[in-house]
Amino acid sequence: MGRFRVGVLVVIKDGVHHDEMPDHRVGLIVRECDTSKGYTSFYEVAFIGTDFTMKFHEMFLELKNESR
């Protein structure tokens, strides 16, 4: 099992940009996406306080309690 799972709070790493992403960059993992490769994962993240969701590769995520 990886570091990330549904229901975990994450922060999107600095350097990732999208116009609709809130400044706080904090979101909740709501779904694990394509895991067919087995060694890497993508996650759908819903941003706190918004209706906006986005899919991210795990390399762009940090666990909330390990970062800011």
Number of strands: 5
Q: Estimate what percentage of residues fall within beta strands.
A: 35-45%
**Morphology:** globular
Strand order of the largest sheet: 4-3-2-1-5
Share of residues in helices: under 10%
Number of domains: 1
Structural class of the secondary elements?
mainly beta
Taken in chain order, the helices and strands follow as EEEEE
Tell me about the largest β-sheet: 5 strands, antiparallel
**Radius of gyration, CA atoms, in whole angstroms:** 11 Å
N- to C-terminal distance: 24 Å
Unreliable spans are none
Task: Tell me what you see in this structure.
- This protein has 68 residues and is mostly beta strands.
- It has one domain.
- It has no helices and five strands.
- Strands 4-3-2-1-5 form a five-stranded antiparallel β-sheet, with no helix packed on it.
- A hairpin with a 5-residue loop joins β3 and β4.
- The model has no long low-confidence stretch (mean pLDDT 88).
Short description:
Helix content is 0%, strand content 37%. It is globular.
List the helices and strands and how they pair.
Blueprint: E1 9-12, E2 26-32, E3 42-47, E4 53-57, E5 61-63
Antiparallel strand pairs: 1-2, 1-5, 2-3, 3-4
Question: Could you list some keywords that capture this structure?
Answer:
68 residues; 5 strands; mainly beta; globular; five-stranded antiparallel beta sheet
